[in-house]
Write a structure and sequence with these properties.
39% of the residues lie in helices and 11% in strands. By secondary structure, the chain is α/β, with parallel strands linked by helices. Among the domains are: 199 residues; 146 residues, Vaccinia Virus protein VP39 (Rossmann fold), CATH 3.40.50.150; 128 residues, no CATH class. The strands form four sheets. It has a nine-stranded mixed beta sheet, with helices on both faces. It has a five-stranded antiparallel beta sheet with strand order 3-2-16-14-15. A two-stranded antiparallel sheet has the order 11-12. α1 runs antiparallel to α10, α21 packs across α23 and α22 packs antiparallel against α23. It is flat and about 105 Å long. The N and C termini lie far apart (82 Å). About 7% of the residues have low confidence.
């Protein structure tokens, strides 16, 4: 959770990039993330060196990159592998200036490149490599524009932009090759170049001051990146905040899934350690990250876990050393066909602490045999695939989509992704996926076939209907969440459907307004009720149960333990860089921020009053005149308090926050004003009497008073309880219900093929075996014809899965002054009239021959 002030600082950082010419917000975020990643790499390298591994900034075999004159000094004379051919490393002195610690200090520019013999030789080598015979030669085809100035202008001053674009980013693009060379297959960065091979620094070269400001801000915002301190959470939260702020158009159906919807879907699946999960439309990898957080949360002491009102988890440390091996790319895989999104998603996982993200640039629907190797490989699948995309069905792999060549043709990506998920899952594997409403009730052959497979050949566990505004402002498409389990195998006529009944839940509110603004609105929020009822598939029934579930909500105030706070309260040194509630930092304060403010104001008001009264001792003697009660007295009292107010202001400047949510300053200022107003309304004699009364009391120090108000600074946040409680107020209508998939209708005139059996139900009320074996009652795919099914079952409705179609009627109680007896009498009269009318109608029909 970022404080409002930190959000403001991050937003300023983003704005710096945008105002410098990077108008695409995604590009600006990508550039910020590159710099964060480069900063993180130095911490990663320190850990590697502690383990006796070679530095990623060290010398590289047959290196073809440019070198900065200070590379060797900052590469720490990295050693070579045992038995290495030193000649293969002669062109490389290391890449120490690619470290963040060098970048942030600024680039020395006073020494020309051609003053060092090594760089003269390097220039000659690059001329040969790029085909230069003379400096006035034309640049050869395919030349590297980043080398041009380096060769032709060896005395040119190197700017910070030059350093990043000509030294750091080329080195970054080669990082995978470096890691392969130093033989460290379990380094967490095995396939970096697949994502960063086209990583370039895009800030305009002339924006030198902007670049220096950006580097300084990143360094100040994330001083502890990679150390394992609380700042690691701040970096990941910053990345999520940046992603939430960008307005990515819903091109090709792509947009960012709201994180609270993601967490809800993850809770439905409930991933366990060791299960392999895939998201074939990964985007920024929100589903995978939240799945990892879900596992950590469930393996953390519940007394430690803290949840924001929308379910965002904090303090999820895992607590089980064995769990770490399951939180790697081995178990979490993501595909995306957009190179930028793949790179951002990969870096997002890196910044969330995953050292080996398996995020690949891949078109999940592409006809490529190597992509089909993961068929049946995953325990879990989770996705929000594109709603509006189309593909050429001729390019689909037949093995993955066998139905395509069996009369079922479609080019709609939402249908194809569903079949893809079924293919990716192991038998008994489970999936949660967001689908548009059209998939649930579409009338095409492909729509019906998909739903038939989900219900008959597999197990559809639930359909959770979401309100239409969930994806505002990007889309107003009505959507639902499907949760299903893969069973598979051949399904033939006479087989029992693997899905007996489907659980439906209708979400009317998700904790945010359903307009384009999507502002916070914690209550009502049906997601908590849906989760409480999900495990047992509880059904809201008016005759039995209309319970509604939700957590408790409460406000707290958090604060980071930084150097300023430790300077005021040295005893908090051991909590440095942690983010804690003020009630946790100061055990004498209650949890509720308003109660904490009231407590401190009440306690310190009396102390402040003592300080102010004591200052009246040195006031003018005229105040002793009991008959003086005019404005002159009040003016003189104010004048007497001026030096005191200056002392308070000086202490406030040193200890209290200013400029945003300065809670301590506001509370103290209001208390000072209150006390002064009280004193100004006193008469001179009352003032002198009180002065004599407090003259012998211990007058508190101003710094001590201000320090107490410093306890109130921080930022407010609304949290929720971990448990979800049943509420006293019952629902007014059902939110959850079930619908049967197949219900055989009673057909008394049915006869077996040999004519020996009549009626499809026996004397005990059971469906006859002969009826179920009669191939005449079936359609293609093992579906029973509608005339043999009850009208209210799903199969009789072309497997329509729209939640509203099966919602039970609500009979609401009403209050009336009419007595029950009178109502019954009136109903009897109406019934009598209807019966009379029906009798006359039958008589008329009977006379027709």
């Amino acid at each position: 959770m970022l404080s409002p002030k930190l959000k403001q600082d991050v937003f300023k950082l983003w704005t710096l990039f945008q105002t410098s010419g990077l108008t695409n917000p995604l590009t600006a975020i990508e550039q910020i993330t590159y710099l964060l990643f480069i900063k993180w790499l130095e911490s990663l390298d320190a850990k590697r060196r502690d383990q006796g591994k070679r530095s990623i900034f060290g010398r590289r075999r047959n290196c073809q990159l440019l070198h900065h004159r200070q590379d060797a000094a900052h590469a720490l004379s990295d050693w070579l592998p045992y038995g290495a051919d030193a000649g293969e490393y002669k062109n490389c002195i290391g890449h120490g200036t690619c470290k963040w610690s060098f970048i942030k200090r600024g680039i020395p520019t006073s020494i020309p490149l051609d003053s060092d013999p090594y760089f003269k030789e390097q220039n000659e080598r690059f001329k040969i490599k790029y085909g230069y015979r003379d400096e006035i030669d034309a640049m050869p085809s395919g030349r590297d524009s980043q080398v041009e100035d380096h060769i032709f202008n060896p005395t040119r001053v190197i700017t910070p932009h030059d350093h990043l674009s000509q030294y750091v980013f080329p080195w970054l693009r080669e990082l995978e090759r470096t890691l392969q060379e130093i033989d460290n297959p379990e380094n967490g960065l095995q396939e970096v170049s697949n994502r960063l091979q086209d990583a370039y620094f895009q800030l305009p070269r002339e924006k030198t001051e902007t670049l220096q400001s950006v580097i300084q801000q990143i360094d100040e915002l994330f001083q502890q990146v990679g150390t394992g301190a609380a700042n690691a959470d701040i970096i990941s939260d910053t990345f999520e905040y940046l992603l939430s702020e960008i307005e990515i158009s819903a091109r090709d159906g792509l947009f960012r899934t709201p994180r609270h919807i993601i967490r809800f879907m993850v809770e439905l699946l409930d991933p366990q350690p060791g299960q392999r999960m895939i998201d074939p439309a990964a985007g920024t990898c929100g589903f995978l990250i939240n799945s990892i957080q879900h596992i950590l949360k469930n393996h953390t002491n519940p007394e430690t876990v803290v949840l924001e009102w929308d379910g965002t988890p904090h303090r999820i440390y895992g607590g089980n050393p064995g769990i770490e091996k399951y939180l790697t790319g081995t178990y979490f895989t993501g595909y995306d066909n957009d190179r930028t999104m793949t790179r951002i998603g990969w870096m997002n996982l890196i910044l969330h602490g995953v050292e080996s993200p398996n995020i690949l640039l891949r078109d999940s629907l592409d006809k490529n045999e190597k992509y089909e190797s993961d068929s049946g490989a995953y325990d879990l699948a989770i996705a929000n695939p594109p709603f509006t995309g189309t593909v050429d069905s001729k390019d689909l792999p037949e093995r993955r989509f066998p139905h395509i060549n069996k009369g079922v043709t479609t080019n709609k990506s939402e249908l194809l992704f569903m079949w893809l998920l079924l293919d990716l899952l192991k038998r008994d594997g489970r999936a949660a996926v967001i689908v548009p409403e059209g998939l649930l009730l579409g009338s095409t052959t492909a729509h019906k076939e998909l739903r038939r497979q989900l219900l008959l050949e597999n197990r559809l566990e639930g359909v959770i209907s979401l309100p239409a505004g969930v994806f505002q402002p990007h889309s107003s498409v009505k959507t639902s969440i499907l949760v299903f389990q893969k069973i598979g195998g051949e399904f033939k006529a006479g087989d029992k459907p693997h899905t007996n009944k489907v659980w439906f839940y209708e979400v009317a509110a998700d904790g945010y307004t359903l307009d384009a603004k999507r502002n916070d609105k914690p209550e009502p929020n049906d997601l908590w009720d849906a989760l409480a009822k999900w495990k047992n598939k509880a059904v809201d029934q008016f005759s039995q149960n209309l319970t509604y579930y939700k957590p408790e909500f409460f406000d707290v105030r958090w604060r980071m333990v930084d150097d300023k706070l430790i300077g005021i309260f040295p005893n908090l040194e051991h909590e440095k860089d942690n983010i804690l509630g003020i009630h946790e930092l100061f055990s004498d304060l209650p949890r509720n921020p308003e109660e904490a403010t009231t407590q401190i104001v009440t306690q310190q008001k009396a102390e402040i009053r003592k300080v102010f009264w004591s200052y009246l001792i040195n006031t003018d003697a005229e105040l002793a005149d009991a008959n003086r009660q005019d404005k002159a007295v009040q003016t003189q009292i104010k004048k007497a308090f001026q030096p005191l107010n200056k002392k308070f202001n000086s202490a406030m400047q040193q200890m209290l926050e200013k400029g945003f949510e300065d809670f301590g300053r506001k509370a103290l200022s209001a208390t000072l004003e209150m006390v002064q107003k009280e004193l100004e309304e006193k008469t001179a004699r009352e003032s002198r009497d009180v002065v004599y009364a407090v003259d012998n009391l211990m007058i508190p120090k101003i710094e001590v008073i201000v320090r107490e108000f410093a306890k109130l600074d921080g930022f407010n946040i609304q949290l929720r309880s971990l448990p979800i409680y049943p509420q006293e107020e019952l629902l007014s209508e059902s939110k959850s219900w079930v619908a049967p998939v197949r219900v055989i209708a009673r057909v008394d005139d049915w006869q077996s093929a040999d004519g020996k059996v009549t009626g499809n139900f026996d004397e005990s009320g059971n469906v006859r075996r002969e009826f179920l074996e009669d191939q005449r009652i079936y359609k293609t795919g093992g579906t029973i014809k509608a005339e043999y099914l009850e009208a209210n079952c799903i199969e009789a409705n072309d497997f329509n899965l729209s939640a509203s179609r099966y919602k039970p009627f609500t009979i609401a109680a009403t209050h009336t002054d009419v007595s029950a007896k009178k109502l019954i009498e009136e109903l009897q009269i109406i019934e009598s009239r209807i019966q009379d009318g029906l009798g006359r109608l039958l008589a008329m029909m009977g006379s027709e021959k």
